[in-house]
Amino acid sequence: MTKYLVAFLLFVALFAFALTDVTDCDLCKYYLKEIKANIDAKATEQQIKSRVELWCRGGVPLGCKLLNAFGYIIQALKSQKTPDQVCKAIKLCQ
Fold it and tell me: Which residues does UniProt assign to the signal peptide (predicted)?
């Protein structure tokens, strides 16, 4: 059930983004806010990684980029870096 909810929410988010001019930077910040919310909700790293893997397998190219930098993203967000700072560090924002 959770996978379907995640997939539905992902579809809705992507549809909303498709209606506007959205950059990789915008998407990065959006997804990192989602990851940060999961960290704050005490989700395990494996649970969070599974969600990011779903984004990647679901056809979100940025999801695969986030998956490649997953270890750094988790460490940075846990050390109180903002999504904006992390997106800049992984070169998705300037």
Answer: 1-20
| Domain spans, the chain | 2-89
- Count CA within 13 A, CB hemisphere, residue 81: 18
Residue reference for tokens 């490649």: 68
Find out whether 76 and 85 touch, Cβ atoms under 8 Å. yes
Query: Token match 């809705």: residue?
Result: 12
Mean pLDDT over 85-92 rounds to 96
Whole-number Cα distances in Å, 9 to 60, 69, 80, 89:
13, 23, 26, 27
pLDDT of residue 59: 82
The dihedral built from the CA positions of residue 75, 80, 83 and 85, taken in this order, carries a sign that is negative
What is the pTM assigned to this prediction? 0.75
* Three-state DSSP class for residue 15: helix
Helices (H), 19-89: 24-40, 45-57, 61-68, 70-78, 83-89
Residue 10 pLDDT level (bands cut at 50, 70, 90) = low
